[in-house]
Design brief:
Elements lengths: L8 H13 L3 H22 L4 H18 L9 H20 L9 H7 L7 H16 L3 H11 L5 H8 L3 H29 L1
Helix pairs in contact: 1-2, 2-3, 2-4, 3-4, 4-7, 4-8, 6-9, 7-9, 8-9
Amino acid sequence: MEYCVAMSDSQSQERIIDLCRQGDREAYRRLFEMHKDTVYSIALHFLHGDAATAEDISQEVFVRLFTRIGQYRHEADFKTWLYRLVANACIDEQRRRKRFVACDDIERVQDMAVRQKNEDPFERSEMIQAVKTAMAGLNPKLRVTVLLKYFEDLSYEEMAEALGCSKGTIASRLNRSHKILARKLAHLSGARGAGE
């Protein structure tokens, strides 16, 4: 299989997708290599750091991707289409579990919450646990929206496309998530203010 080095990344990816549609095994491998880390990372975050289940979800996503590659119509960015597959697989897993699990690796959220100098390690540990617990309280649709926004840095348009809803719904979900997290973490700002 030939891949032109002079092609842009998006042109190269489009060529690989076209070759996948033709059944080219090397193209499948290349597409997998290009996106496996992102898919696994989203699943891992969504599933509270459950590496084994995140691995299963990743495999499921790529099976779906390869069996449905013909449905991709180039109307949206390929990554957006892929995010939708990942989000749906994670939400399906959540439904199968019938319980809500916390996000394990939320370093960006933690760093925003604990970005002060000379912090007591015990306080930081308590704060990290509080943020994890608060994230665990979000329903799956809110949590996946937060993950796509703050971990994958998607725009509202990209999130709306990935989750199959309007930008207004995305804004509403983020607003609800922020309010829930602020309410659940309000005690931290009070405790921090008392300790200063």
